[in-house]
Design goal:
4-stranded mixed β-sheet, 9-stranded mixed β-sheet, alpha/beta
Length: 292
């Protein structure tokens, strides 16, 4: 079973029809979706491998709704209930690029992961958002360490350059060195910011993660899989005809990649499954497979 620890929130996705006009109206379409990077990965993976979500949501009607929606996709949902469920406003421009305004709410309040919630996990995935805030930050670190001690594999997603800048580059690299996850997922800008892969070449900080495979996504360009001690593996991305909303594409990639890794151990195949999974979300609002 694949476990994912992190945020479960409501996404308010706004497809802006043109440039934002300051001080007046701007035409848009608005969609409400279940969101949260960790919840997205669990949802997308559930159709390929048994998946469990671990987190905290508010004890409120929005929390009821997002928990039920996630469980409806076949995810084994384990959550604490307290506080107020978070929301993220996601502005999508005509090129599909996102500007996010997060209010994570109860997602930062996870402070206890019972042994039963980690039981049976072959792998635990944690988006870096979960390290930003307490008590969830120390809870995530503890859960990753417990899964490793039990013989499981682990992964961390770098999440966003904005989050990394706020958390601190050196601090985050030190945390990754301490955690020694099996995989780190990053997009090209995040990988360059961390000094792991810069302009397609091994970056100056790569040696600090000597036990970790770094997977760098680059949009429509080839994904790079950097296994310690091996030549760089590049996996081309098949063309996608309709790209309207990039929300959740990285989460869908991680879900497909991890499902493929757990099933076969073949990293080239895993990357290909990640690309296929990511392509399914690019034409729909928010982190959803073809839902309008």
């Amino acid at each position: 079973m694949l476990g994912v620890l992190g945020d479960l929130v409501e996404d308010i996705v706004v497809w802006v029809d043109g440039p934002l006009r300051h001080g007046t109206d701007s035409a848009a379409q608005v969609f409400r979706r279940r969101g949260g990077s960790a919840a997205n990965v669990a949802c997308f993976a559930a159709g390929q491998v048994p998946a469990r979500f671990i987190g905290c949501v508010g004890d409120d009607p929005i929390g009821d709704g997002v928990v039920a929606e996630l469980a409806g996709h076949g995810v084994d949902v384990r959550v604490e209930r307290r506080g107020r469920t978070g929301s993220i406003v996601v502005l999508i421009d005509r090129d599909g690029e996102r500007t996010m305004l997060p209010d994570r709410g109860a997602a930062t309040l996870l402070d206890r992961v019972p042994d039963a919630w980690l039981a049976g996990l072959a792998h635990l995935h944690v988006p870096a958002y979960s390290f930003d805030g307490e008590p969830v930050g120390r809870t995530a670190v503890d859960a990753l360490a417990r899964v490793r001690r039990a013989g499981g594999t682990t992964s961390v997603d770098a999440s966003s350059t904005g989050m990394l800048e706020q958390y601190g580059r050196e601090r985050f690299l030190g945390l990754l060195a301490e955690l020694a996850p099996t995989f780190v997922f990053a997009n090209r800008s995040e990988s360059a910011y961390l000094g792991l892969l810069v302009d397609g070449a091994i970056g100056p900080e790569r040696a600090r993660l000597a036990a970790t495979t770094v997977v760098t996504k680059a949009g429509a360009e080839a994904t790079t899989v950097d296994v310690p001690g091996e030549p760089l593996l590049t996996v081309p991305v098949p063309p996608v005809a309709d790209v309207r909303d990039l929300t959740g594409a990285g989460d869908a990639f991680a879900a497909g990649f991890l499902a493929g890794f757990l099933d076969t151990g073949d990293l080239h195949l895993a990357a290909g499954l990640g690309h296929r999974s990511a392509a399914r979300v690019l034409a729909s609002p928010g982190a959803s497979f073809g839902e309008r």
